[in-house]
Write a structure and sequence with these properties.
Number of strands: 27
Largest sheet: 7 strands, mixed
Distance between the termini: 69 Å
Length: 699
């Protein structure tokens, strides 16, 4: 090749970008096999109860309608590990919006009309959908999401907090949040005569979907192929198999024709997971110089009656700041609500909002600069385990961010800056996210024409995975990135973990690096031209990733924000956001920046615009579409900057990389909330900070 290889870390343009903007990239609902039928679900209209009758005659009489699946005629499937997927298997209604029927028709319009014609009768029972601090059903689970213990105690918190000369005791509340990816959850399923199933699925992990469908339909995994070649966002909501894949496969088997099912957006909040609401009490005890002596972070949240999922929001407090005395607990109530699930930076995003808001309150009580307070409590070892950090760049992020932002030029007094009716304020918050790496496999192939091909069942959910994996291989093989082809997004490829928890590049990249290294060694041993079939090697990292690291491995960051609050309307407008992140070696500066600012903007939504409430009578999420659930738009984000501290960390993987998909959102909401407090002098402890909440403090 005549091109010069580009170093790992270069801002290589994502290779699928042109396909996406020209429409060549095909998503799950854009595959239309010959004879394809369309499906539309019928959601439950009661909160809790039993189905007593389903009337389908009117729907079946409509032109184009082929069948209506209900719990009475749908095929019985094997019980899944995830009970959310046991759709149309019994008459129970555990929450409003659960699918109770599925209409299959020749066209999307006919399927929708058929669904509207289905009438369902219920026997309703009383329901409970509201989380309260004193809910009688609260209990302490054994573990929370991620397998962390629900309760951790270190030292004697009660004594240390009581003796602390400076104390903060505050409770912060967050409502439910929804992922709302641009591409709705969708599946296109088709069966062959020899009992083989192919599903085009909008998923963060084709291999996991394959295994679930094989188990439920009584098939061997090799009989199922799941393709998730292009995915239009997920943010955690596509991290597990979702009901549309099961329903599409069920309907396709029954009709003998391909079936396509794209979930209507209004129905997504009820069936694809959400970030559960939390009530978080944070107590900080400190010496007069700002040294923390005690930290308590106590969480109350909800789960569903279908399965237990507990947001691990107190876990970040176990590792963030030095303190000899600590208590972190989680309690949960099982309510008649849809099952919560993963949403970008689960645990860290809501937990760090509360912790970093409390740190700001402590700084104000002490009269200490908020950046300086965090630096004074930066630990040398992870407080929870005592392990040394593989690298900890928090101080560097705070110092670099403060310099770039002009932090120390600000007037620290609340309400001191005005522009006519506008109050201006600035805020800061820290960020952290753990390093997760799991076993993966990949193959590397050298073709006779001098090009290379990497095959791995990774999933690109918009992060640029294809590009960075090609960069990793190219760096090992000392070849231009353009000479490396990447095959991803299909369950027939070498096994790899799903895209979630910022594990993707660190896990997939390690196996790609290992396979490419082995291929380079084979090529060095080879003499003469390559055979027509080329040379292929495979590698997996199960052994390497199974080893327990003696180091605490985390990414860190710092957020700075400036806001303007209109004293006439209560409206908060963001002037600028700046983030600095320490996430190991950055493998592609262009796509990394995209991930950082994407997370920051999602944090803006969490702080100012996104909110979801459950109607206590109807039991459903009131804000169930993009007209009522307000995600940030371009006008909300005038100026966002993201920078990185390139760390040299030899204790991660061969690339020295940490995950970057989550860290951008962590702390962003707190920085904005702290900026609003600085602007107005009012400390609001419930997100989002909408005008109705602010106006009473601006009179």
């Amino acid at each position: 090749m005549s091109q010069t290889p580009q170093p790992l870390g270069a801002p290589v343009v994502r290779r699928e970008g042109r396909d996406k903007v020209t429409g060549a990239a095909r998503y799950a609902a854009e595959h239309t096999p010959p004879g394809c039928l369309y499906a539309w679900p019928v959601p439950a209209t009661v909160v809790r109860g039993r189905i007593t009758a389903v009337h389908t005659a009117e729907a079946l009489a409509l032109p184009g309608v082929h069948t209506v699946h209900t719990h009475e005629n749908a095929p019985k499937l094997n019980r899944p590990d995830d009970p959310v997927l046991a759709v149309l298997q019994d008459d129970r209604v555990p929450h409003r919006g659960r699918q109770v029927a599925l209409v299959v028709a020749d066209t999307l319009e006919s399927a929708r009309a058929g669904a509207e014609a289905v009438t369902v009768e219920y026997e309703s029972a009383g329901h409970d959908v509201l989380l309260t601090e004193d809910h009688p059903g609260l209990y302490t689970p054994e573990t929370v999401n991620g397998g962390y213990p629900a309760v951790r105690e270190r030292g004697d918190f009660d004594r240390a907090f009581a003796e602390a000369p400076v104390q903060v005791d505050a409770t912060y509340t967050l409502g439910a949040l929804h992922n709302h990816p641009m591409e709705p959850h969708a599946s296109t399923a088709l069966w062959t005569d020899d009992e083989r199933l192919t599903v085009y699925d909008s998923s963060q992990g084709a291999g996991a979907v394959r295994d679930v469908l094989a188990a439920m339909f009584g098939l061997r995994p090799e009989q199922v192929t799941v393709i998730s070649e292009h995915v239009g966002g997920g943010f955690g909501s596509k991290g597990t198999t979702r009901p549309q894949a099961v329903l599409a496969a069920m309907a396709a088997r029954h009709t003998g024709r391909p079936v396509k099912l794209a979930l209507p957006r209004r129905e997504m909040p009820a069936v694809v997971g959400h970030r559960a609401p939390t009530v978080q009490r944070v107590r900080l005890g400190a010496e007069l110089d700002g040294t923390l002596t005690s930290i308590a972070h106590e969480i109350i949240t909800h789960t569903s009656t279908v399965k237990e999922f507990v947001e691990q929001a107190a876990v970040p407090a176990r590792v963030m700041y030095a303190s000899p005395h600590s208590r972190t607990t989680h309690r949960v109530a099982a309510l008649d609500v849809p099952s919560p699930s993963w949403m970008r930076a689960p645990g860290e995003a809501p937990g760090m909002y509360a912790l970093e808001s409390a740190m700001d309150e402590l700084a104000l009580a002490l009269g200490v600069d908020p950046v300086e307070l965090r630096l004074r409590n930066d630990p040398a070892h992870e407080p929870d385990t005592g392990h040394p950090f593989s690298s900890r760049g928090l101080a560097a992020c705070l110092e670099d961010g403060a310099a770039r932002f002009g932090w120390y030029d600000r007037d620290p007094r609340p309400t001191a800056r005005r522009e006519g009716p506008l109050l201006l304020g600035t805020g800061v918050a820290s960020a952290t996210y753990p390093v997760y790496i799991t076993g993966s496999s990949a193959s590397a192939h050298a073709a006779a024409d001098g090009t290379y091909r990497i095959r791995i069942n990774a999933t690109d959910i918009g992060t640029g995975a294809r590009t960075v994996l090609a960069q990793i291989a190219a760096s090992v093989l000392d070849t231009p990135v353009a000479g490396v082809r990447i095959d991803i997004g299909c369950s027939t490829l070498p096994e790899a973990p799903l895209a979630g928890g910022s594990t993707g590049t660190a896990s997939w990249g390690w196996s790609v690096h290992k396979a490419s290294t082995a291929l380079a060694q084979e090529l060095r041993k080879h003499t003469g031209p390559l055979p027509d079939a080329g040379i292929t090697v495979t590698a997996d990292t199960a052994e390497e990733t199974a080893a327990t690291s003696p180091y605490a491995r985390h990414a860190f960051g710092a957020h700075f924000a400036e806001v303007a609050v209109d004293t006439r309307t209560g409206e908060v407008r963001v002037r600028r956001m700046l983030g600095v992140f320490a996430a190991g070696h950055i493998l592609n500066s262009r796509t990394a920046r995209s991930q950082f600012i994407g997370g920051m903007i999602m944090g803006l939504g969490m702080a100012l615009t996104e909110g979801s409430t459950i109607d206590p009578v109807f039991g459903d999420f009131t804000q169930n579409d993009l007209a009522s659930y307000h995600v940030p738009v371009c006008a909300d984000v005038p100026h966002v900057e993201a920078y990185s501290i390139d760390e040299d960390d030899a204790h991660l993987n061969p690339m020295g990389s940490k995950g970057i998909g989550e860290i951008g959102i962590v702390g962003a909401a707190a920085a904005l909330g702290n900026a609003v407090r600085h602007a107005t002098g009012a400390r609001l402890r419930s997100l989002p900070l909408t005008p109705d909440k602010l106006l009473p403090y601006l009179a």
